[in-house]
Amino acid sequence: MTRTRLHAPFALRCGAFLIDYILIVSLVVLGTLFARMLGGGARTAGTSAETGAIVLAIVVALLNFGVLPGLTGLTLGKWAAGLRIKRVDEGNPGIGRALLRHFVGYPLSLLTFGIGFLLAITTVQGRGLHDMIAGTVVVREGSL
């Protein structure tokens, strides 16, 4: 019995995207707040705290946008929204494809003044430019 895939609604994809970026930005914000709480006399410690927060945010971004979706098809935001990234031919994306999707496809989608993202509204399969570049599709969790 073949199940049809329910493509993720654009608004739900935007919500998942927002959750992912709130996570990353909050790490930098918390690091900056911690650095400011160390006070004026602790400039070196404050700078180290800010640098540590930025490094942590980069590591979390690589894990959340590359490794985690590559192995499971989920980012933390997609998990919370009940979505999953799949290859067009049904498998998990793989780490290379996930990195390509996010770190090449997303910037290209932005460079087209956001039209690359809006393609997800207009295409039959609900795929944005980043999905087309990586050969992926975002589906609802229950429609795998």
Describe it.
- With 144 residues, the chain is mainly alpha-helical.
- The protein has one domain (10-143).
- The protein is built from 6 helices and 2 strands; from the N terminus they run H-H-H-E-H-H-H-E.
- A two-stranded antiparallel ribbon has the order 1-2.
- Helix 1 (10-37) packs antiparallel against helix 2 (43-72) and helix 2 (43-72) packs across helix 4.
- 32% of the residues are buried.
**Using DSSP, what is the number of strands?**
2
* Shape call: elongated
Number of domains: 1
Radius of gyration over C-alpha positions, nearest whole angstrom: 18 Å
| Major beta sheet summary | 2 strands, antiparallel
Itemize the secondary structure elements and their pairings:
Layout: H1 10-37, H2 43-72, H3 76-81, E1 83-87, H4 95-111, H5 115-122, H6 129-134, E2 136-140
Helix pairs in contact: 1-2, 2-4
What descriptive keywords fit this protein?
144 residues; 6 helices; single chain; two-stranded antiparallel ribbon; 7% strand; mainly alpha; 2 strands
Give a quick precis of the structure.
The chain is mostly helical and 144 residues long. It has six helices and two strands. The protein has one domain.
